[in-house]
Specification:
34% helix, 13 helices, 23 strands, alpha+beta
Length: 500
């Protein structure tokens, strides 16, 4: 199984990177735990991209919006590239891939100074990813699906391949360049809108082999999530058409905020969390606007539902991940990364419409660079033996459930220094226990636990509230904490230097 470039992942970032590498002439293998184009966060998203198309808007304005939204922690090199290259990459969805695009007419996305939202294929992420999947197949990207990432293969300090498990069999793939596009760790939370397959193994696996992680404390919670009568997203456009949020006393609690219900996600999520109960009131939204701008809610109305419309925030996005430069390079030779598995671009908080755009922009750059900066690969590589599974029956489920409880209760919206330290210590103990067990099941669960541990560790060290990281015991933002926390191995360091 020898290739020029290996791409791990099946969402928009992975497909963009694989297509880019293949178009550079490389022989590319895309490996994913599910079905490429039908798994990961981008597939279940609302298909929202960001581009410059409004009169008076510019990449410079977008760049400053990103920095402001990140509370000053966005890597400016990465932010500048996203702002400058987003438009051509997004427009390619239409001109190159034939995906119909719709552009918003007025600002409906918190943190943006101009309308930038571009809806691809009726606001369904899978209508973009399935087109990218078909294109990748047509140009010769080779797919290996239902293949679960178990380990990286290293030769000295360079990554030369991966080990995957499929149907109980372990297989090694080798390549001069390996790209991780495996997503964030949202699936580790008890309450999340992420698919369960987004569970942080790529982040932790890279960490296990010496890669640097950055901004792991910043986890975004999504405010626009309906709980009752169904668990689904409420698209933000209806809040520009008259929808409002009410507390249990039927008071509009966001009325005095500058952007009201369209405040940035960190502010709105926390304000909703404080209310205990939050109700959606869309009585002032026309039925035509509701059908167009929030079709899932519209369907429930058409079915005759007349009860309460309750909302509550859920875990949505991870700002932190593997530290990369503007070409997706990590600190390990031969290892690249792009998409939500990486950190640094969004700092303390991501603007809406940024994740899928990031996947297109940095997927393209990373795939191209991986072709031209590979490492020497031995003629033959072998997967190390992992041994027979020794986890007692039922133990994996027990640990997985406890992991989700820890993340939601101690590393969630309401967090304190002590809750984060408690989570850090308990997760470290679970990781040490799993490290003593044999087999791929224990190793994969260990990686999930370590990704969670890194988020808790960074959160416990940052003694301020900034962006999505809101400490109940330190509710102010502090100038001395304007910098990034970088984790490598057991060490964590604070640096004011946030350039790539």
């Amino acid at each position: 199984m020898n290739y020029d470039v290996i791409v791990m992942g099946g969402g928009q970032a992975a497909l963009a990177a694989a297509i880019s590498a293949r178009e550079e002439g490389a022989r590319v293998a895309l490996l994913t735990k599910g079905k490429a184009g039908y798994g990961g966060s981008s597939v279940i998203s609302d298909g929202v991209q960001s581009a410059i198309f409004s009169d008076g808007d510019s990449p410079e304005t977008f760049f400053h919006d990103i920095l402001r939204g990140s509370r000053g922690l966005s890597n400016p090199t990465l932010a500048k590239i996203l702002a400058e290259e987003c438009t051509v990459r997004v427009n390619e969805l239409e001109s190159k891939f034939g995906i119909e695009l719709e552009r918003e007419r007025k600002v409906a996305t918190p943190g943006h100074s101009f309308p930038r939202r571009v809806y691809a294929a009726n606001g369904l992420g899978k209508n973009t990813t399935k087109v990218l999947r078909q294109y990748a197949i047509e140009i010769g990207v080779e797919f290996f699906e239902q293949a679960v990432l178990v380990d990286l293969v290293k030769e000295g300090q360079a990554v030369v391949g991966v080990v995957v498990e499929k149907g109980g069999a372990v297989t090694a793939f080798s390549a001069p360049s390996t790209i991780l596009a495996t997503g964030g760790f949202g699936g580790l939370y008890a309450s999340t809108d992420n698919p369960k397959d987004v569970s942080g193994e790529g982040i932790s696996l890279a960490w296990r082999h010496g890669a640097e992680l950055v901004d792991m404390e910043f986890v975004q919670f999504y405010p626009y999530r309906l709980q009752q009568p169904a668990n689904l997203d409420v698209m933000t456009r209806i809040f520009g058409k008259g929808a409002i949020l009410l507390n249990r006393d039927l008071e509009r609690f966001m009325e005095d905020f500058p952007r009201q219900e369209l405040e940035t996600r960190d502010i709105l999520s926390y304000e909703m969390f404080k209310q205990n109960e939050v109700y959606l009131d869309f009585s002032n939204v026309s039925i035509e606007d509701l059908a167009k701008d929030s079709p899932y809610v519209y369907r429930l109305v058409k079915k005759g539902y007349q009860g309460d419309w309750k909302m509550y925030p859920v875990q949505h996005y991870c700002m932190g991940g593997i530290k990369v430069d503007e070409y997706g390079r990590t600190n390990l030779k031969g290892l690249f990364a792009c998409g939500e598995v990486t950190g640094g671009l969004h700092g303390a908080n991501r603007l809406g419409g940024g994740s899928l755009t990031e996947a297109l922009v940095f997927g393209k750059r990373t795939g191209k660079m991986a072709v031209h900066e590979g490492v020497p690969v031995p003629a033959k590589i072998e997967a190390k033996p992992f041994g027979e599974d020794t986890l007692p029956e039922g133990k994996a489920l027990e640990i997985s459930q406890r992991l989700k409880e820890i993340m939601w209760n101690f590393v969630g919206i309401e967090r304190t220094s002590s809750s984060l330290e408690k989570a850090e210590n308990e997760l470290a103990e679970l990781a040490l226990y799993l490290k003593e067990e044999n087999g791929t099941a224990a190793l994969q669960l260990h990686d999930k636990v370590r990704a969670a541990w890194a988020a808790a560790r960074a959160g416990a060290m940052r003694k301020e509230s900034r962006g999505a990281h809101i400490l109940q015991d330190v509710k102010v933002e502090k100038k001395e904490w304007e910098g990034s926390l970088v984790i490598q191995g057991e060490n964590i360091t604070f640096t004011k230097e946030i350039h790539a």
